[in-house]
Amino acid sequence: MNNGIMSPPANTRPPKLENVGIEQHLDAQIPPSLTFRDDTGKPVKLGDYFGRKPMILNLVYYNCTMLCGEALAGLASAMRLIKFDVGKEFDVITVSFDPRETPEMAAAKKKDYVDRYGRPGATQGWHFLTGPPESINALTKAVGFQYQYDEKTNQFAHATAIMVLTPQGHISRYFYGVEFPPKDLRMGLVEASQNKIGNAVDAVLLYCYHYDPQTGKYGAIVTNILRLAAGATILLIGGLLLILWRLDRSAARKTETKTRYA
Description:
The structure is a single chain. The protein has 262 residues and is an alpha+beta fold. The chain has a domain at 15-196: Glutaredoxin (3-Layer(aba) Sandwich), CATH 3.40.30. 39% of the residues lie in helices and 20% in strands. The chain has 7 helices and 12 strands. It has helices at 67-80, 103-117, 122-125, 133-143, 182-192, 200-208, 222-260; strands at residues 21-22, 35-37, 43-45, 55-60, 91-96, 126-129, 145-150, 155-158, 161-165, 171-176, 209-212, 217-220. It has a 5-stranded mixed beta sheet, with helices on both faces. A 3-stranded antiparallel beta sheet has the order 1-7-8. The longest helix has 39 residues, at 222-260.
């Protein structure tokens, strides 16, 4: 309280942002029967993309003049910095949450960001979709994506995040913002794939780092790092002792041979 005036709670949102945010629904199933149209205008179901590889899902609208473009650019940049290829190790599904937008708009946006990504095969692996209100509402509710339309500005107020999905369409990870650390993105994809992609280094990193749902980032697990360091130290000492033992045996044999023929 300040001068007799009570301050609003810290978590109170401004009127235009009351219904804006992201509520995590980890492990929730994305409804596979939801129908959309791809950038060619072809009717598709989300389930058409399930079953093969992990996926990144992001919700934008193509006429957005602010955050959506930055989020797409940030995603393309992060994907360029990991060795996994879109269309090979994982797919990306970008969905407009504005039902007024068209496949032609999706096609233009796809060309722009596939060109920015710049790797072969991305056209087949990065899908830009539009859809009817009922499909959009069901999808946004499934992932906990909350947004609000402002009639005065003809814009949507919304948060930004990407969701990493398992091949079966379950939500595995949320990453927030418009820039996504490549290390976190790679580990999220490896986890979502149940280690079907990645290598031994990824397995070590996942042992040493843990996903924090509150921050949407991976943090170090100190105890596991110490265990790994201790194990490596033991192996190093063991290897050194083995080398010394072999050298000692070799020296003893040489001495014995010299004595025998002296």
